[in-house]
Amino acid sequence: MIKHILFDLDNTLYSRRYGLENGVSARIHDYITALMGVTAEEALEERKKRIDHYGTTLEWLMAEKGFTGIEHYYQAIYPENEADALRGEPGLRNFLKTLPCPLSILTNAPKEHADRVLKKLGIGDLFTELFDLRRLGFKGKPREEAFRMALETLKARPEEVLFIDDMPKYVSGYRAIGGRGILLDELDEYPAYGYEKIRDLQEISGFLL
Ligand SMILES: [Mg+2]
């Protein structure tokens, strides 16, 4: 039985049509290009090659580039006006309030970013726990440690927590430890994905029994 719902934040609690993550990606690209002192193409190429070994670019930089400027990185990637394009999602707050169990968030972004987005959406008060990358000790999704840390705090087993994310690799990480993971594939970008998925967040009601 599902006792808790764990949501990804970006492109899960709001539509990917806002394109917020495109801005994040562009700023990450600019940042690593400057950091590595190579051309933009070379930086992009290396990131592409290495990123699959890590949940986030920051973890890659820390592990392989000896990078330690975490706060500087976060300020550059998540500027204060980053969520300006975001509008409230009509009906989201009311829908979340109808869900029959507690809700939490697991994001590979920092808390200040999550707080900004949640404030824009007007739903910050509806979540019990917010697990951000700092709280996860910079070992984010899809690592097992990230999910275990959240589950331990929620005092629940993997099969008791429904996890929703728009990225197949994060959902797979949770499924690999026996969790109930659902892919939110809003724009049908992963037609070959062979496990449970939804197009709209409101469909999760069907997975709560
Ligand atoms: Mg996401």
List keywords for this structure.
binds magnesium ion; 6 strands; 209 residues; 2 domains; single chain; alpha/beta; Rossmann fold
Say how many strands there are: 6
What is the topology, as strand order, of the major beta sheet? Answer: 3-2-1-4-5-6
Helix content percent band: 25-40%
CATH evolutionary superfamily of the largest domain: HAD superfamily/HAD-like
- Tally of separate domains: 2
The major β-sheet equals: 6 strands, parallel
The termini sit apart by 7 Å
The overall pLDDT, averaged over residues, is 95
Shape: globular
Sheet/helix structural class = alpha/beta
The CATH class name of the largest domain reads Alpha Beta
- CATH architecture level-2 label of the largest domain: 3-Layer(aba) Sandwich
Oligomer: single chain
Bound molecules: magnesium ion
Strand content: 5-15%
- Enumerate the spans where pLDDT stays under 50 for 5 or more consecutive residues: none
- The number of helical runs is 8
Radius of gyration: 17 Å
Question: Would you write up a description of this structure?
Answer:
With 209 residues, this protein is of the alpha/beta class. The chain folds into two domains: 4-14 and 86-207, HAD superfamily/HAD-like (Rossmann fold, 3-Layer(aba) Sandwich); 20-77, no CATH class. It is built from eight helices and six strands. The protein has helices spanning 20-36, 40-50, 57-64, 70-77, 92-98, 111-121, 144-154, 168-175; strands at residues 4-7, 103-106, 130-131, 161-165, 180-184, 197-198. Strands 3-2-1-4-5-6 form a six-stranded parallel sheet, covered by helices on one side. α8 links the parallel β4 (161-165) and β5. α1 packs across α2. The chain binds magnesium ion (MG).
